[in-house]
Design brief:
binds 2,5-anhydro-1,6-di-O-phosphono-D-mannitol, Fructose-1,6-Bisphosphatase, Chain A, domain 1, single chain, 24% strand, 8 helices, 2 domains, 15 strands, binds magnesium ion, alpha+beta, 336 residues
């Protein structure tokens, strides 16, 4: 007889999932627990950002040549700290770190996984109280256990991710993660300090009415992309256009909304930046994995994001992601 157990926490859920795999060691559950813990700490700071002197610039420029915000640094240190001290992660890559960090110690060298993350995406929105997020990607190591992780462990094709997820620090705080088994969302219940299962088995609607793109760059996009954006604004479309334009400028929020409601998010290449702005390994790959597991599609305009062979930790790629039918419509413009 099925028993209604009421609230299911993130830990309970991952442990239950693990039971379906008799050979599972629990390391992935441990990794997700560590990420959840760091997210809760970051959440506390994000929520009091207006109260304490943590807002504003840290005063340095990161490897991407962008201003670093204090909360970016805090978030980076939290995620790096819990993963370093946990037992599941052999090393990390982060948007805020010039190079990979390999946790070369006895325990970490035995760990099966490596993790790449953007500790606080959309950080230019921190000062104005707009939702921001953390994005993460997990690979199983290809290097030999017992030895330090290597660059090859991180530079794997996106299809090899074993898990990926994001945390959105919004009107409520949510952690959404995907494995090959599906996508599940957990909302932080502040009264008990636990992420609890609120969005089981998320599916991205096949069609949607929202398109998200930075219109300010319109004249820098390729003609086919411009034509598609034009079409999004036209009436009498077979699929019920015109669409609604929504662009927060915080990808976690934009893609989260489109995942739940149906829609398309685009960050195309521009004449100035042919590869766009977003980073493959810790921004596009994880979202591509999540949205594809939920039934959507993610490409660079030519091939699946998850098929791109990475060569550099911080490489960028044009990014198109969303509901299946909308992505197919976009493709009909791009590929003629
Ligand atoms: P960040 O990692 O420096 O925060 O930049 C990524 C963010 C995304 O969240 C968002 O979609 C995009 O930058 C917005 O960029 P733009 O202002 O060029 O549209
Ligand atoms: Mg980012």
């Amino acid at each position: 007889m099925a028993i209604d157990r009421g609230i299911q926490t993130l830990d309970e859920f991952t442990i239950q999932q693990m039971r379906n795999f008799p050979k599972a060691t629990g390391e992935l559950s441990g990794l997700l627990r560590d990420i959840g813990l760091a997210a809760k700490r970051v959440n506390v700071e994000v929520n009091k950002a207006g109260l304490v002197d943590i807002l504003g610039d840290y005063g340095s420029i990161n490897v991407q040549g962008e201003e670093v915000k204090k909360l970016d640094v805090f978030a980076n240190n939290q995620f790096m700290g819990v993963l370093r001290h946990g037992i599941s992660c052999a090393g990390i890559g982060s948007e805020e770190l010039d190079d990979l960090v390999i946790f070369d110690d006895e325990i970490s060298n035995q760990s099966k996984y490596v993790c790449l993350f953007d500790p606080l995406d959309g950080s230019s929105n921190i000062d104005v109280n707009v939702s921001i997020g953390t994005i993460f990607s997990v690979f199983r190591r290809v290097s030999e256990l017992g030895k330090p992780a290597t660059r090859e462990d991180f530079l794997q094709v996106g299809n090899k991710q074993v898990a990926a997820g994001y945390v959105i620090y919004g009107s409520s705080t949510m952690l959404v993660y995907a494995t090959r088994r599906g996508v599940n969302g957990f909302t932080l219940d502040p009264s008990i300090g636990e992420f609890t299962l609120s969005h089981p088995d998320i599916k991205c609607p096949e069609s949607g009415k929202i398109y998200s793109v930075n219109h300010g760059n319109f004249f820098q996009y390729d003609k086919p992309v411009q034509n598609y954006i034009d079409a999004c604004q036209k009436k009498n479309k077979s699929n019920g256009g015109p669409y609604t334009q929504r662009y927060i400028g915080s990808m976690v929020s934009d893609v989260h909304r489109n995942l739940i409601k149906g829609g398309i998010f685009m960050y195309p290449g521009t004449t100035d930046k042919p590869n766009g702005k977003l980073r493959l390994l810790y921004e596009c790959n994880p979202f591509a994995f999540i949205v594809e597991r939920a039934g959507g599609i993610a490409t660079n305009g030519k091939i699946s994001i998850l098929d791109i062979e990475p060569t550099q930790v911080h490489q960028r790629t044009p990014f198109f992601i969303g509901s299946k039918n909308m992505m197919e419509e976009l493709n009909s413009f791009i590929q003629g």
